[in-house]
Amino acid sequence: MSLNLDGQTIVLLIVLGYLLVLIGIGIYSTRKIQSSEDFLVAGRRLGPFLIAGTLAATEIGGGSSLGVVEKAYGDWGLSSLWYVATMGVTFTIIAIVAPMLRKAMVKTIPEFFRRRYDRHSALFTSIIMTLPLIGLTAVQFIASGVILSVIMGLDYQTSVAVVAVVVIIYSIMGGLWSVSLTDFFQMLMIVFGMLAVLPYSLDMVGGWNMVVETLPAKSMSLTEGIGWPTILSLIFIYTASFICGQEVTQRLYAAKNGKTALLGSLFAGVLFFAFALIPASLGVIAKAMVELGILDATDILENGARYVLPTLAVQVMPPVLVGVLFAGITSATMSSASSDLLGAGSIFANDIYKIYLNPKASQKQLLNVARFTMLIFGVFALVIAVMNTSAIISILMFSFSLRAGGVLVPYLLGHFYKKGSKQATWASLFLGTLGILAVQYDWINFFGLDGIFLGLLMSFVSYMVISHLYPGNGLTIENWGEEAVEETTEEEKAINLQPKHS
Predict the structure, then answer these.
(1) Global pTM value
(2) Is 20 exposed, middle or buried (0-12, 13-18, 19+ CB in 10 A)?
(3) Domain count, the chain
(4) CATH number where 259 lies
C-alpha cells in the first residue's frame, strides 16, 4: 500500500504544510482574544456561513469519513450514507430551536443549569458532559493516527501520539476564533479530497456498472444494509445529543443573533446531505475492487477495515491528490478533536474553576485555566486512543448517548417550561444517566434498543412528575434577561432565588 519515496515525500510535505497553515491561523487568532468570551464563544460575532462551516467540520471527522467508508466496505454497503445524511436531518431540526438556545446568552450548558436550576446540578452536568468530550477527542485521535500511519509508515501508537501533540498545541491557541476560521476551509478540503478519489477509483474498477454487477444487491441498497431501525435511531440519537452537546451549542451561542443561529444550522444540514454519498460510494467501490483483485487488501486484512480509505487513495491517485485528501481528513479529524477539547476546557474553566475554586478569577486566569485543562484532557484522550481501538462509530454512538440521557430534558424544557424545578432536574439527570449505563453494560435489555431510549424516557417522566409535585420558581430565559450573562457568582445565586417576572 505504501507510496514510493518521492510520492511519500510529496504527500508528507503537503500535509505538513497544511498543518503549519492551520497553526498559523491559530497564532493569528490569539490577537482577537481579549477575554474568556472571545476564547469560548468568539465574541458572539459568527455569521451564518461561518457557523455552518464550523458545525459541519466539527461533526465530519473520523466517524463521518473513515468510519463511513469502513461501514460501506463492510455490512452496511451504500446505505452507510445515512450515518451522515441523518446529521442533515438533525441540524434541520436543531434550526427550529437554535434561536431559543442562542437567546439564553450563556457560554456553556452547565452555565445554563446553574442559572436556571442550581449550582449543584450544574456541577453534575459538567462532569457527565466532560467525559464524552474526552471520548470523542480520543475517537478523532484514532482517525488521525490511521492517516498519519499511512503517510509516514509509523506504527499506529506512534502515529496517534504525534497527532495528539499537534492537536493539543493547536487547540489551546485561539479558542473558538481559530477553530471557526479554519473549519470552513477544512470542510472544503475534506469534500474536495474525497471527491477526487471517485473518478480515479471508478476508472480503475471499470465504472459504476461494474461495481453494481460485482457486489450483492444488499450492498447497493440505500436502506437494506443499515436498516430503517438504525436510521431512525441515528436521527434520534444525533438530535438528542447534538442539542445538548457543548461542541454544537457553543457555535450557536457564538452566533450574532437568533436568526443567524437558525440559518447556520440549516446551511449545515445542507452540507451534510451533500457530503453523505461520497464516503459511502468510496467504500463500496473499494469492496468491488478487492473482489475483482484490483485493490491490494493486505493492509486492510492485517489492520482492519479502518484502513480502507487510505489504502484506496494510495493505490489509485497521484501523490499530490493523495496529499490533499490526507490533509483534508487529518485536518477534519483534528478540527473535531480541537472542538471537543475546547468544549471540555470551557466547561472546566467556566463552570468548575470559576464557580468553586476561584470565584474572583480574572479573565487572564480563566483563559490560562481553560488552556491548561485542554492540555490535561488531551493527554488523557491520547491514552484512551492508544489503548482502545474499537470501531470508531461505536465509540461515538455511546458518547452521544451518555451525555444526552440525563442532560437533554432539563436543558431543553428549562428554556420554556416554568414548572421545571431543581428537584426534578436532579432526578432527571440521575435516572437518565442510569438508564444509559444500565443498557450499555447489559444490566437490563430495553427491547433491544439503544440505551438512549430508556435514558430519555426515565429522564422525561421523572422531570415532569417531580416538577408537578415540586414546581419550580417560574424562571426561564424569557424572564432572566440578557443582562444576566456577565453577572458575578453572587448575583447568579440571586437570579436563581429571585426570578424576575415579565
Answers:
(1) 0.83
(2) exposed
(3) 1
(4) 1.20.1730.10
